[in-house]
Amino acid sequence: MLEVKNLCKYFGGIHAVEDCSFKVEKGSITALIGPNGAGKTTAFNCISRTMVPTKGEVWLDGERIDRLRPHKITAKGLSRTFQISRNLADMTVLENVICQSRINGWRDLFKPAMSPQEIDKAMGILDFLNITRIAYEDGSNLSYGQKKLMDLAALLMSDPKIILLDEPAGGVNPTLLEEIVGHIRKLNEQGMTVLIVEHNMELIMRLSQRVVVMAAGTVIAEGSPEEVQKDPAVLDAYLGGAMEDAA
Ligand SMILES: Nc1ncnc2c1ncn2[C@@H]1O[C@H](COP(=O)(O)OP(=O)(O)OP(=O)(O)O)[C@@H](O)[C@H]1O
Ligand SMILES: [Mg+2]
């Protein structure tokens, strides 16, 4: 469904992503892992066109998307969350979910307040995620985990086919983490393709069918969770730590 070909992103002399290629199969939960600074978020930024890639191609469902504007990519069915939750100041959760999901570029500036259809849809999604009780809370008063759920809700507003999650469980307490895992599973069972970046190896190993490992901007290993866990290049990149704990 998604193919990244020879992607590069340079910041001056820093090669954040260097000749990175991988595929995400339709209907899969694929994990993108790697040590801090490996280039995972930068790859996400280039795929969703939050950043313009220096070189390389990104294909979605057989169509090249790396030259499209971000909202066009969302309209084609690819949505992503951000590692740092972006919540709009002085807005309720419901307002955040609706406003963050508006994808028509400058035309949205002329849109009136939330439409009844948007409210209905957003409330349906909050219900799916079991968070209707916080619909009218100020977005800035939420716990870390609740913010992650709000981000997930905003993501679902655009009816994506594939979602890119950047550390959806980062800093989240264990109970809420299980809830988030459950939601990701349920979405996947309903046909959603998922690409997930996460440092929690135990979570990655039990949630994903396929793992792509990045280090220093490029892919160093790919395979089933069991395969990559044993891969010497992967163990080397992590210097033993996180990988051995998960094993
Ligand atoms: N806007 C930027 N300007 C300059 N350098 C950047 C920029 N964004 C990222 N980098 C650098 O690119 C490299 C890759 O960073 P990136 O955030 O993509 O890594 P990551 O794999 O997501 O790491 P983490 O697991 O810590 O989130 C790092 O060396 C980082 O410092
Ligand atoms: Mg990152």
3D structure, described in words:
- The chain has 247 residues and is α/β, with parallel strands linked by helices.
- The protein has helices spanning 40-47, 70-75, 93-100, 116-128, 144-156, 174-189, 201-207, 225-230, 232-238, 241-246; strands at 2-11, 14-24, 29-33, 55-60, 63-64, 78-80, 162-166, 193-197, 210-215, 218-223.
- A six-stranded mixed beta sheet has the order 6-7-8-3-9-10, sandwiched between helices.
- A hairpin with a 2-residue loop joins β1 (2-11) and β2 (14-24).
- The longest helix is centred in the last third of the chain and has 16 residues, at 174-189.
- The model has no long low-confidence stretch (mean pLDDT 90).
- It binds adenosine-5'-triphosphate and magnesium ion.
- Residues 11, 14, 16, 34, 36-42, 83 line the site of adenosine-5'-triphosphate.
List the helices and strands and how they pair.
Layout lengths: L1 E10 L2 E11 L4 E5 L6 H8 L7 E6 L2 E2 L5 H6 L2 E3 L12 H8 L15 H13 L15 H13 L5 E5 L7 H16 L3 E5 L3 H7 L2 E6 L2 E6 L1 H6 L1 H7 L2 H6 L1
Parallel strand pairs: 3-8, 3-9, 6-7, 7-8
Antiparallel strand pairs: 1-2, 1-4, 4-5, 9-10
Bound molecules: adenosine-5'-triphosphate (ATP) and magnesium ion.
The site of magnesium ion has 3 residues, from helix 1.
